[in-house]
Each structure stands twice: as structure tokens, then as C-alpha cells.
Design goal:
Elements: E1 14-16, E2 20-26, E3 32-38, E4 44-48, E5 51-53, E6 56-62, E7 69-75, E8 78-79, E9 84-85, E10 99-101, E11 128-130, E12 153-156, H1 158-162, H2 176-179, H3 182-191, E13 195-198, E14 202-204, H4 208-212, E15 223-229, H5 242-255, E16 259-264, H6 281-289, H7 313-330, E17 334-337, H8 354-361, E18 369-372, E19 391-394, H9 396-408, H10 413-420, H11 424-427, E20 437-440, H12 449-452, H13 488-507, E21 511-515, H14 547-560, H15 564-567, E22 579-582, H16 591-596, E23 600-605, E24 609-614, E25 620-623, E26 629-631, E27 643-644, E28 646-649, E29 653-659
Parallel strand pairs: 12-13, 12-21, 13-16, 16-17, 17-18, 18-19, 19-20, 20-21
Antiparallel strand pairs: 1-2, 2-6, 3-4, 3-7, 5-6, 7-11, 8-9, 10-11, 14-15, 22-23, 23-24, 24-29, 25-28, 26-27, 26-29
Helix pairs in contact: 9-10, 9-13, 13-14
Length: 661
């Protein structure tokens, strides 16, 4: 083994230059850092990093090549009450590792000790970091740069999307390779979505509690190594490395004009609370990486046991560099930030926090799509509408309002219209545009669309928490029978509600997000918190694909692209020709109809398209405004359109008309 040289403090992580590897590690409070190399037999060689530049420890080893497995042992004070939990008996994953091999098990050797240091060595079972070379050939790949006003997001899980797809070769089902397979590319294009938003693909761990129950973390919101692609979603076909396989998928999607957005987790880590496993940041520099109280305990503003302190300068830099890595090396087009309020905590939430300012000023990241889940469970954690440019935000108020309007009828026409018109009361601030609201009816977290109309209550017994987990307030409606099996009349009512909700979602102002599987009737049998169900409950069953519902959804997405008022990404104003709100008599809505009227109305978009709504329990007649109106697909056939002056609207019915020139 060559003697270690001082090396350089940049770049972050383990960097191969063709001759050797430069290793760097941030730790403000460490006293010594050991680099631990592992051979193919698991034998460990330790070397002290000889260089330190401010708080960056570094060293260079000639002749080390990609594929080398390594970890760190970090020496420093053991003072839990002061926030320090250094423990050199615990092998640590590099916070900037580009690959991680191995899995976290429910093994007490991972325990650091709550008050007294645990001196059991963890190297034998600990995941190992791996050196990678950045040598993928992107050829002429370019980001699609889909304008926000044209964006339609499709939220999917890598495994769940294709694991049961009969058209995908069995050896790549449920993998990165399947995302870029021609079968999936063709499907995305026919559906009409522009942007594929993937649940976390960075390396994550299964919580020990789940392992004891015989379950696994399915969603991936328990991160360990945010730079490293999770190898469990790789097929390994043709000897491809997981990152190469992912890059090939991104390249194929880009060639089809489809963006890739990653769901990322920079709010907590898999180290959980004080009793959780010591895997990485706790042992590297606990006091710098996490928010702690005056007794050295973790602030749990995430509900996951700990909270990352993004306001710390080095943690902030680590976060931004990680995002740049995904864009530069993997060519992703944007990010959705889980529990994003944490990003702006100082510890109070501040919309001009340094993270936001640096992100907006970054020449690379400022060109990417940025989406916030605008809440956490800490003080004043709910921040919908309060994120700065360039962020868009998940809009749970849109979700709840549209479910309540169509399924319960307990909000006014005015409330419905505010949400339909980009939630301007929330988002029309400063330079923000209507696309800032990410409109959704469903997401991975909650009921699927089919379950919204089939279940009044959650059914999460399989999660092992006696049905205590998951939201209780879902604004769902089973239409009279709990469960999927129902008489034909109820099934017809449910389908009508699904059509109404999809029409509202895909023709509202703002950015629509469709949950994968909603377009063909996927159900999780009433489980609204399937984070630990890595099985056929969550994997899409393509052989039961509701082709009629797919055609309906695709037609709506393609219709959306034809209506100028939905693509301009400008706030609607009275008299601008973008929108008119009409009552069932074809006249402008009255004050009474806005506040207390029955849930029957018409929305005229760009003068030539008309959406008629009947969200009541009764059949009604709606008089169309003057003009030559005919129903259009997916509400009518293409041939011989019949001109109408009155729409006979069924209960919970919706229709779209186009004016014939």
C-alpha cells in the first residue's frame, strides 16, 4: 500500500483522477480521522488522513482505483450532553459516498450508546462506501427544459412502476433500466406527461423497528447516503453499475423529451433518535449535522427522530454540492424536497434563509425545477405559499378542497374557484406564477384515487401499528359501500367521481401532478400509508389496467395542452379572455351563487372551451352560453359532433365543450 499524501480539501468525497484517489471528510469537532480500506476478503487497513484545511480532513492515495471499498473512523470527544458522539468503534459511511454496498440490519453493533459509549466494533456488518469514476458518455444529451406552464408531473416509484409490467423483460422489471425501456417511453408519451418524479433513489436504510416486524421501508424516506444511487433498484444487466444504469434511463427519457425529477430528503437521516444506529453523520460530527437542544438531544421536527441543520455552513455546502452532483453527473432536471420547511429553519422558518438565497443564485441549480413539500412538524412548520422563487409547492389545500367539493359538497363555489384558479389567494405574491402551486388529488402519501372513492376509513393493519398510522382526515367517500367490491350502480357513481376529480386536476390553473397508477385504477385496498409495503399491494398491476380510464386521462392531458389559458402561466384577471365563471343559467355567477349556490357551474377558458360541473346528488340542466358548443373527447366521440344549448348533467358529472367556429 502506497504512503498517503496530504491531498487536497476539494472535491468532496472520494475522487479518482486516473492515478489515485483523493479523500475528503468534513468534521469541525473531530480530533483525528482514520480512512479504513477493505479488500475483497473484508480485511481492514487503517490510515490517518494527514491533511486538514479548516474543517476538511483530506488525504491522497496513489494507485487506488474505482471499486475500492472504504469507510471512516472518527476520533473526538464523547460528550452526549454537549452534542458530541464520536465513537471510533463505529465504521462510518462517507457522507459524500458515490456508492454504498451492504445493508443496515437490526444489529446492536450499530448502537453508539445513549449515555455511555458502546465499544462494540461495527466494521464487519457496516455498509461500505465505494470509489467511483465519473466516466459516463452522455453524448449529446440535453435537458428538455419543459416550461413550467406546460409541465404535467407523474409521481412514481422505481420498483412499483414496472415490477409487474408484462411488457418489460423480467430481468429488468422494477429497475432503473425499465424506466428508459421503449415500452415505458411509449406509455409516457401516450399518456402525455412531461416530467417523471421519482420517489427517493438515493441509498436508504430500513428502520430496525420495521425489520423486527418482517417489513421493509418501501418509499425510501430514510436516507443514509444522499449522493449514492440505491443499488437495490439496479438490474445489473450487462455488468452495468447502478449509476450507469440510471444514467442510461435518464438519457433515454431526455431523448423522448421527458424530464426526471428526484424526490430528495435533506431533513433527517437513517440514524433516527439517540437510540438509533450510528452509521454516518452522528459519528462524523453530530453537533454540526443535527439540530440539538440545550441537553444535546435531537430536535425532532421531522417525526423521524432527528433533524438536519442545513443552516450550518458546512452542512449547507454539503447539501448544495449534493444537488449539483445529481445535475452535473446524473443530468436530473429538478428536485422535490421532502419536509422542505427544514431547509429554511434558522431554527425558525425564514423564507430568505441562506439555503434559498444560494440556490436561487446558483447558475446550475437555479435552472432546475424545485418543488417543496412545504411543511414539517416543528414550530410553525406549515408554510404553504411561503417559499421563495424558484420553488413550486405541493398544495394540500387544493387536494382537500377538490375532494370536499366533489365528494362531500361542504365548500362553496367560491372556494372551489380559488383553488381551480391557481390558489391565487396563497401563491400570487411577488413574482410567483400560477405554476407555483403543484395541484394534486393524490400522492404516494395517502389513498390512491380509486381508494379515495371506495373507502371512508384507512385500512393500514398490514403496517403493524394496529391501524394507528396514516392520516385519519382524508375527505374520501365510499359512495355507500366500504371496499372495492360494490353493486354496479355504486361502481358507476365512483367512476363518475373519478372522472370529475381527474378533469378538475388536469384542467385547473397550476401544475398538475398525477400519481402513477391513478390513470388505470390502481388500489392499495384502503392502505393510506403504504411506506412499508414493498409487495403487490403497492406494485402497479398492469394486467388489470383500466384501459378506458387510461384513455380518459390521456385525453384530458392532451386537451390541457390545447387550452391557452392553462399554458400561459399568467394569473387570470377579469376581462382578460382567459376565464369566465358562469352559473347554470349561462350568465356570470352572482354573489349568492359564489357563496351559497348549489354546486353547479360553468368555467369558460380561452373563450372557446367550456367546462360544465354538476357536483350535486341530482340530475340537472345547465344552459350553455351563446355559441355553437359540442362535447369533445374524452366526453364524446370525434365523429359528427352534436351542437348543444343545454347540458343534462348527471349527478357528480362533468363535461367539456368546445365552441365550433
Amino acid at each position: 500500500m502506497s504512503l498517503m499524501q496530504p491531498g487536497q480539501p476539494t472535491p468532496s468525497g472520494a475522487s479518482y483522477d486516473g492515478k489515485g484517489v483523493n479523500f475528503t471528510l468534513f468534521s469541525q469537532h473531530a480530533e483525528r480521522v482514520e480512512l479504513c480500506l477493505f479488500d475483497e476478503y473484508g480485511r481492514e487497513t487503517r490510515m490517518t488522513l494527514p491533511g486538514r484545511t479548516e474543517d476538511i480532513w483530506h488525504g491522497y492515495l496513489p494507485a487506488i482505483k474505482p471499486g475500492q471499498r472504504y469507510g471512516y473512523r472518527v476520533h473526538g470527544p464523547w460528550q452526549p450532553e454537549a452534542g458530541h458522539r464520536f465513537n471510533p468503534y463505529k465504521l462510518l459511511v462517507d457522507p459524500c459516498a458515490r456508492e454504498v454496498q451492504g445493508e443496515v440490519t437490526d444489529d446492536r453493533r450499530f448502537q453508539c450508546g445513549e449515555k455511555i459509549m458502546d465499544t462494540t466494533d461495527s466494521a464487519e456488518i457496516a455498509p461500505k462506501s465505494v470509489v467511483l469514476a465519473d466516466d459516463f458518455d452522455w453524448e449529446d444529451d440535453k435537458p428538455p427544459r419543459v416550461p413550467w406552464g406546460s409541465t404535467v408531473i407523474y409521481e412514481a416509484h422505481v420498483r412499483g412502476l414496472t415490477k409487474r409490467h408484462p411488457g418489460i423483460p423480467p430481468e429488468i422489471q422494477g429497475t432503473y433500466a425499465a424506466l428508459g425501456h421503449p415500452v415505458m417511453i411509449s406509455y409516457f408519451k401516450r399518456l402525455g406527461i412531461t416530467s417523471l418524479e421519482l420517489l427517493p433513489v438515493a441509498y436508504f436504510a430500513h428502520e430496525p423497528r420495521l425489520l423486527r416486524l418482517g417489513l421493509k421501508n418501501y418509499w425510501g424516506y430514510n436516507p443514509l447516503a444522499t449522493y449514492a444511487l440505491d443499488g437495490r433498484y439496479a438490474s445489473g444487466m450487462h455488468g452495468l453499475h447502478p449509476r450507469d444504469e440510471f444514467q442510461q434511463a435518464v438519457k433515454a427519457l431526455h431523448e423522448a423529451g421527458i424530464e426526471v425529477i428526484l424526490d430528495v430528503v435533506f431533513n433527517h437521516t437513517a440514524e433516527l433518535d439517540e437510540c438509533g444506529p450510528t452509521l454516518c453523520k452522528r459519528g462524523v460530527d453530530n453537533k454540526s449535522f443535527y439540530w440539538l437542544d440545550e441537553k444535546g438531544k435531537y430536535e425532532n421536527w421531522t417525526g423521524c427522530g432527528n433533524t438536519l441543520n442545513i443552516s450550518h455552513p458546512n452542512v449547507l455546502n454539503w447539501t448544495l454540492e449534493c444537488l449539483r452532483y445529481w445535475v452535473e453527473v446524473c443530468h436530473v432536471d429538478g428536485f422535490r424536497f421532502d419536509l422542505a420547511t427544514v431547509l429554511g429553519r434558522t431554527p425558525e422558518y425564514y423564507p430568505h434563509a441562506t439555503f434559498f438565497e444560494l440556490l436561487a443564485a446558483d447558475p446550475l441549480l437555479s435552472q432546475c425545477k424545485m418543488i417543496a413539500e412545504p411543511w414539517d412538524i416543528g414550530p410553525d412548520g406549515y408554510q404553504v405559499g411561503n417559499f421563495p422563487e424558484p420553488f413550486a409547492e405541493w398544495n394540500d389545500q387544493y387536494r382537500d378542497a377538490m375532494r370536499r367539493y366533489w365528494l362531500h359538497g361542504d365548500i362553496s363555489n367560491g372556494h372551489f374557484a380559488r383553488r381551480f384558479a391557481g390558489s391565487s389567494d396563497i401563491f400570487q405574491r411577488g413574482e410567483r406564477r400560477p405554476s407555483a402551486t403543484i395541484n394534486l388529488i393524490t400522492a404516494h402519501d395517502g389513498f390512491t384515487l380509486t381508494d379515495v372513492v371506495c373507502f371512508n376509513k384507512k385500512h393500514n393493519e398490514a403496517n403493524g401499528e394496529d391501524n394507528r398510522d396514516g392520516h385519519n382526515s382524508n375527505f374520501s367517500h365510499n359512495h355507500g359501500v366500504e371496499g372495492l367490491n360494490a353493486p354496479l350502480l355504486i361502481a358507476e357513481l365512483r367512476l363518475r367521481s373519478v372522472h370529475a376529480l381527474l378533469t378538475t386536476l388536469l384542467l385547473s390553473q397550476g401544475t398538475p401532478m398525477l400519481l402513477a397508477g391513478d390513470e388505470h385504477g390502481h388500489s392499495q385496498h384502503g392502505n393510506n400509508n403504504a411506506y412499508c409495503q414493498d409487495n403487490e399491494l403497492t406494485w402497479l398491476d398492469w394486467e388489470k389496467n383500466n384501459s378506458g380510464l387510461f384513455a380518459f386521462t390521456a385525453a384530458l392531458i392532451h386537451l390541457r395542452k390545447r387550452i391557452p389559458a392553462l399554458g400561459l402561466d399568467r394569473w387570470w384577471e377579469v376581462g382578460d379572455g382567459n376565464v369566465e365563471w358562469l352559473g347554470p343559467d349561462g350568465q356570470l355567477m352572482t354573489a349568492r351563487e359564489w357563496r351559497h349556490g348549489e354546486h353547479r357551474m360553468q368555467i369558460r377558458l380561452s373563450q372557446h372551451w367550456l367546462i360544465t360541473l354538476n357536483a350535486t346528488e341530482e340530475v340537472c340542466e345547465i344552459k350553455l352560453p351563446p355559441g355553437k358548443w359540442h362535447a369533445i373527447p374524452p366526453f364524446a366521440g370525434d365523429d359528427n359532433p352534436i351542437l348543444l344549448t343545454v347540458w343534462h348533467g348527471p349527478a357528480h358529472g362533468v363535461c367539456v365543450f368546445q365552441e365550433q367556429s
